[in-house]
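The following block was generated as part of the benchmark described in Methods. Ligand: calcium ion.
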Amino acid sequence: MRALSFGLCFTLALVGSASAGLVERSLRPEMRPSSEAPVAAQTAAVAVAIRPIARPAVVTKERAVTPAAILAATSNAGFKRWVSGFRGRALRAGISATVFERSFRGVQYLDNVIKRDRNQSEFSKTIWDYLDSAASDTRIANGKAALAQHRAKLNAIEARYGVEKEVVVAVWGLESAYGAFRGNTPIVSALATLSYDGRRGQFFESQLIAALKILQAGDTSPENMTGSWAGAMGHTQFIPTSYLDYAVDFTGDGRRDIWADDPSDALASTAAYLSRFGWETGVPWGVEVTLPRGFDYDLASRKIKKSPTDWAALGVIGANGKAVPNHGAGSILLPAGARGVALMVFKNFKVIERYNAADAYVIGVGHLSDRIGGSGPFKADWPREDRALTFVERQQMQRLLSAAGFNTKGVDGKVGPKTIAAIKDFQRSVGMVPDGYASLDLLKRLR
Ligand SMILES: [Ca+2]
């Protein structure tokens, strides 16, 4: 399903009495909807805009002809030509002329979709700011209420797919605030706009073809096919290709209706998706751990996997003071470096990554599911005095590291494996804890 951020409007529904009057924002770390999308190691940009998508500007004779108006008019003319060309490709892909005409009736070029696409990487949040919202008291309470309200259905979904109901509810909570923010952007217009725009046009055109296939199958109507600006739809925000491959009809009415107010099909689809990618029933996504004094921080890597017993031999125990049960091979993950929460993550962490590969998102889903299930907050503190480095600061850090002989192999503002390796080498050279964490303190040392 890949991370797709959210343009939306809403009615508050489906969330039980505990949520009365409380409006939550959907919360998803943004990354490009692409399998190769790199994700900064410790920051997650988060979409927070809650506003309806505006209609494109209509240029009239009365209106002053501003550069923006010229651009909009050009876009609309070009867009119409693009639709004509796309029609042939859609028909060759098996879409009937009738379905095409019906689906494209009233389709428009949506300026705001392009604006959202261009603005994706502007914001950075620290992991703790993200988690404060992902597992806020409100979201936890609403999750418990949603689980209570839909318990029988969630039990049936859990029984069929083997994915714990708290996890399904947590995905629901982060993707659409339990159905409150499913998005009201017309999906065909949004995907046509993004396909025409050309930046990742091929990806979006394949999504658009998939959306038309869904309409052709009769699962929903063009009017009901709404969602977020980049094509994610329904309670748990499936993009069209993921829908075609993984959505299920849990209610048995012959339609896989993830857009309905009734979340049954959407929640079952999420469970089916996680199950398909190897969810292990009864195994946690991860647990909080305590690292021993003198821990070798080179071991804190997703590439290094050991059994909880082997980690215990190195002094790594549960944050509750007990040995970590044998949940299979786990890796140590330090989302905010040595001064923050330490986690031991298991196979299900990787399964949740299939929804969204940002660490912050996966930890958000996992932690929210634990909290909905009654567990407490993390025991360790976060380095809250720190703030996230801005994009420009991350670039500066990379330039300074490379200039000091710790080559980051590029200045792209993204903290990937090469930059983390360079940070570790620099940290060792100056006697800092070599945790590879791109902190403000690190940047100050480099300056
Ligand atoms: Ca159904």
